[in-house]
Amino acid sequence: MEIAKQAVCGTLQSNDCFIRLYPHDDGIDLDIKSSVMAQFGKQIEKVARETLAEMGVTSCRLFLEDKGALDYTIRARVETAVKRANE
Predict the structure, then answer these.
(1) Largest CB tally within 10 Å, which of 6, 46, 50, 51?
(2) pTM as predicted
């Protein structure tokens, strides 16, 4: 699945994350910013990549700004951004 247009989802409030998703021609490009990057950065990236793969996204640029979101929140935000990008 290709990302058709830019989309955003989420907030910068505590326990949430803000997603910006852009079309991109060269695979998956992730940019993750988190206050807990040292402890949970690999898990945040894993959840984002798995969600994109499950939705069939093969190329996009995803900026994820995390404020302590749990896995299910990250998954929901990525899914919503992908759906908005392909409306």
Answers:
(1) 51
(2) 0.93
